[in-house]
Amino acid sequence: MSTTEQHTVTDIELAIEGMTCASCANRIERKLNKLDGVTATVNYATEKARVLAPTGVDPSTLLAQVEAAGYHAALPETTAPEPEAEAADPARTRLLVSAVLSVPVIALAMVPALQFTYWQWISLVLAAPVVVWAALPFHRSAWMNLRHGAAGMDTLISMGVLAAFGWSLYALLFGTAGTPGMVHAFELTIAPGDGAANIYLEVAAGVTTFILAGRYFESRSKRRAGAALRALLELGAKDVAVLRTVDGQVVEQRIRIEQLAVGDRFVVRPGEKIATDGTVEEGSSAVDASMLTGESVPVEVREGDTVVGATVNAGGRLVVVATRVGSDTQLAQMGRLVEEAQTGKAAVQRLADRISGVFVPIVIALAVGTLAFWLGAGADAATAFTASVAVLIIACPCALGLATPTALLVGTGRGAQLGILIKGPEVLESTRRVDTVVLDKTGTVTAGRMSLIAVHSGDTDEDVALRLAGAVESASEHPIAAAIARDAEERVGPLPRVTDFANSEGLGVRGTVEGHAVVVGRPALLDEPLSPELDAAKTEAESLGHTAVVVAWDGAARAVLVVADTIKPSSERAIATLRDLGLRPVLLTGDNTASAQAVAAVVGIDEVIAEVLPADKVDVVKRLQEQGKVVAMVGDGVNDAAALAQADLGIAMGTGTDVAIEASDITLTRGDLSAAADAIRLARRTLGTIRGNLFWAFVYNLAALPLAAMGLLNPMIAGAAMAFSSAFVVANSLRLRSFR
């Protein structure tokens, strides 16, 4: 093999199944990196591995390496993605069945009045499917960890559930718990006991159900991680009208977008999406590129100009020659940017998983040590095993499993009432450390819609100028014309009818209104120059990045209309609030510098980065991160999606595109920038609640572990302490409902 060949690598993506925590991703990553020439990055959140391997490597080698680590891998091309609802069904079914069976088991154990003759055997029948079938994922994970010499939360869950169930079987079959008429007194006493008269089926079933609930809600958030790419691809056109020569005549044929080839000529009518990147061959129009570039003002294109796929033709008919198709288009390149940003962002490992790496082995060792100690001290086997089981049950992490999902559910529920959507626990730690907030201009700080912001009419009546200009513009489909017509009608009422309408492409429109020959557009349409007053108004508007439109009738220019993207009323107050939270605001936009600086001056932002392309936005975020900043990005367009994914905290305005929303960590459905400050406060409060939950969950368990090891805490009291810690965690989480 030549030196060049040795250094040639190929990029392979693997879909990983079976990961239950961030340590699983680390284990797979280490296993893959043991292969010669392989560099792998495994993302727990997206359940994907990105592998750089020598060219010619057999993908089956990579798949086998993942299988050897105890997980399943497949090439995405060979695995059809399941819809979210369909993928969620098995977990939801397991949870629902477990809950239905567990409720009566817990009720019978905790309420002596309900304990009829043979109630304990009914509890066994109900609890067995929960322990054997519903808890099967935990048992599988524990077995896999055992095979690879590791231990995690699933290990403790499985051992605790099986220990409680196994001892219950012993007490029922070989002890006195199976006696007809046995009553479970549920006495909270601290004293040694042999356990032969006690069953702990409610512990086995309850722990399983609570943990399944937490895992189910966590997995729902995780499954949405890849939705940004799907939303991005859906922006493109699905079919296209190409021009073909048939029998010497040029005819239109509609084909699927996948059949379009470089060099094909295709037609784009008003209102249609441009099918792919290309060059305009015939026609002129205004193209709305805001979904991709963030530009609020449509771009005028004519013969020879380039256009980008997925943008919208807002004006006349175009004939375009395709120059890039498929994976070479700008839309596809932006998709890759989003994917790379998501892969490069390390997922925050859950606190419980980090702690369990040490906690679980200690608990297991303590349970085994307790059993050995009592047997060595001459105690009978029942007493020794009872103490050992109590250790496992008191340490069984029900409260740990509830700590994150309950706080998240309450916090996100309150957030939804306030127009804030937090996607999952992995986003919360970043909010505590964020010190810089990057704000996209269009649609975030500004409304993202063209509006008439000023009328300069000199000695002419302003309402007359608006009435005549609005009437002519109402016949045009141009976005700027639509803004003038809409705002004119709101100010002066119904507009008169226009006749003899004509459109001068790229210049403006003309028509007859109430006997007046009206012209609206650029000065080039006029026969005479503007007056000094109107020319000064036009120059001032353009210096601020606004669009100036001249209105003339009966041969003379009478007014200048100024159209621009307006600033949201709440933006100035919201940015002041962000500063109060200790954040430094930065305005980032694809618009021109003059327009960006004008907006920044109004809302109180000192730092402006303007005229940037989508890839540049990602670079800006990376540059800030390299400077040691923890960056929050607020945006709403497709062009913001990659930057939102790259940022330490991505915040999408819900009034924007699905791509931006799906690539973000937090979505603001209010469309109000002040919600960004509320989102950061709520996320920080939710994180604090999770930390408090985890702390108290461990305090309860660790305080009782010595009692359990000394044989002074029977498993029933251990189960009660575990249940109390769970109730405390839930109650503490409910305090988030009062967040304002």
Can you offer a commentary on this structure?
The chain has 740 residues and is of the alpha+beta class. Helices cover 49% and strands 20% of the residues. It has a seven-stranded mixed β-sheet with strand order 14-26-25-24-15-22-23, sandwiched between helices. Strand 18 (508-513) and strand 19 (516-521) form a beta hairpin. Helix 6 (136-147) packs across helix 7. It is elongated, with a radius of gyration of 33 Å. The relative contact order is 0.10.
Bin the strand percentage.
Answer: 15-25%
Largest sheet: 7 strands, mixed
Helix count from the secondary structure assignment? 26
Output the structural class. Answer: alpha+beta
How far is the N terminus from the C terminus? 66 Å
**What's the assembly state of these chains?**
single chain
State the helicity in percent bands: 40-55%
Q: Care to count the β-strands?
A: 26
Q: Compute the gyration radius: what is it?
A: 33 Å
Mean pLDDT: 80
Shape: elongated
Q: In which order are the strands of the major sheet placed?
A: 14-26-25-24-15-22-23
| Low-pLDDT ranges | 1-6, 78-88, 224-229, 341-350
Topology summary:
Layout: H1 3-6, E1 9-17, H2 22-33, E2 39-43, E3 48-54, H3 59-68, E4 72-74, H4 84-110, H5 119-134, H6 136-147, H7 153-173, H8 201-223, H9 227-234, E5 239-246, E6 249-256, E7 265-268, E8 277-282, E9 285-288, H10 290-293, E10 299-301, E11 306-307, E12 312-313, E13 318-324, H11 330-344, H12 351-376, H13 381-395, H14 398-417, E14 420-422, H15 428-433, E15 436-440, H16 441-445, E16 446-456, H17 462-473, H18 479-492, E17 498-504, E18 508-513, E19 516-521, H19 532-543, E20 547-553, E21 556-567, H20 571-580, E22 584-588, H21 593-603, E23 607-609, H22 614-626, E24 631-635, H23 641-646, E25 649-653, H24 658-663, E26 666-668, H25 674-709, H26 715-734
Parallel strand pairs: 15-22, 15-24, 22-23, 24-25, 25-26
Antiparallel strand pairs: 1-3, 1-4, 2-3, 5-6, 5-7, 7-13, 8-11, 8-13, 9-10, 9-12, 14-26, 16-21, 17-18, 18-19, 19-20, 20-21
